[in-house]
Amino acid sequence: MTMMCKEFDTAVIGGGLAGCAAAIASARLGCKTVLIEQSGVLGGQATLGIVTPIASVTTNPTDGKPTTDFGGICSEVYHDAKQMSLKYGSPKNSDPIMTEINPHITKYVLLKKCLDSGVEVMFHATVTDSVQTDTKITSVTVSTKSGSRCIAAKAFIDASGDADLVRMSGAPYHIGCEENAYAMLKDEGFAKSHVETLFDGKQDDCNVNITSGQMQPVSVFFRIGGVDRERVSELNNRVLTYENTGIDREKLEKSAFFGRCGFEPDGDRIPMPQGRVLVFPGSAPGTAAINMSRVINIDATDCDSLNMGEYLAQEQVINLMDFLQNFVPGFENAYLLESANTLGIRESARMVGRYMLTGADVIECRRFDDAVAYGSYIIDIHNPNGSTSGAIGGKINEDYYDIPLRCLCSAKYSNLFAAGRCISADHVAHSSSRVQGTCLMTGEAAGTAAAVICGTGETDITKIQAILRKNGALFA
């Protein structure tokens, strides 16, 4: 039986920050836009994943200059969510500088902006198939509680995070680390400044046992109360050893969690999934957001591997609570408030676009004539082999870098765009461009490009940039 297709100008797959920004941008430009989201809330990692730090919403000056707001929908969402978090999601006497963005407030902010812009939001809907010609995608099949639906559109935006539409349509994509990605860092002279020295002050060789296809680890964020922040700060973001903490090795090794995923013996270091205590202040006194889980060798595009990641990361939350309560000063009275409802995926599949943003582009902050978005975050590669072999990371050389339109455009289909985590970027560049502020910006750029192609049939870069500048999303 042939399904009747509901027709749109723009169809956006994935309701995370990138997808929301794309849908809002498209709809505000007069396009009939649908946003297809598999869960029941918008925001992705910012809400379901409770990843409350929204990074890279401003420039990151290297010489002490004031920061510059990137503007556009990125700025709009960030500041609205911040203000509403102060009003509804924090105690009245909260410090506005320190207050985190409340993920439950962000859900509301995003939904209201989508609906006010005229976006049709399809919750509990998953894209399962696509139909395409040699040059264009024509429609997708969406699985819902009421059965399958057909969605036809003039332009499609993959904001799924895992390049779901890109992969199912037969468009080219890449998974994980490219061959010689770390050799590039070494060969181009970036190794010294871009190998993190957190682990015993040692710099790892950039070629250290990381092979093609390996991906950054997955994690689960969680929030706790009953934290003595002052005492915790003494050990925060440090490598902990038995010697510098006084932790009883014999007692730790008798713990129920010892030897399990992330707590394997690690010589003189205290075994932890991420190798350190990593705590962010919460929105209320005594609360904190914890980013300490880490599971390696998980492929988010493979259902069995993804399931295993959920098993192991969720187990780590309870094991980390046990560890913190019993061994880390300041957490003696800590209690679990909530953990993320979904696994935090840092890296999986990425579209191969008309251009692939490189690590050198990001580090050197290169400019492009077809720039449509910006990034300012550090190179931040959570080591694919886990905590014990260090991490690759370091500052970029200037205030921000450009992201060209070509990185959002499929190399195969003229009406397929990517936004957020699955734009065309190599393993090193991706470690910076994957963060949430940049996802909002690439989302707005993709939504704007989709609207232009719906109106003219072409990706007119001059017109796209003019619209983005008018809406405050480009300043250069």
Notes on the protein architecture:
This protein has 476 residues and is of the alpha/beta class. Helix content is 29%, strand content 17%. The chain has 13 helices and 17 strands. It has helices at 17-28, 72-88, 103-117, 164-168, 181-187, 229-233, 242-245, 249-253, 303-327, 359-363, 427-433, 436-456, 461-470; strands spanning 5-13, 33-36, 120-122, 126-132, 137-144, 147-158, 173-175, 222-225, 279-281, 288-290, 335-339, 349-351, 371-375, 379-381, 392-394, 401-404, 416-418. The strands form 5 sheets. Strands 1, 2, 3, 4, 5, 6 and 17 form a 7-stranded mixed β-sheet that branches. A 4-stranded antiparallel β-sheet has the order 9-10-8-11. Helix 1 (17-28) packs parallel to helix 3. The chain is globular. It starts with a strand and ends in a 6-residue tail after the last helix. Residues 196-207 have low confidence and may be disordered.
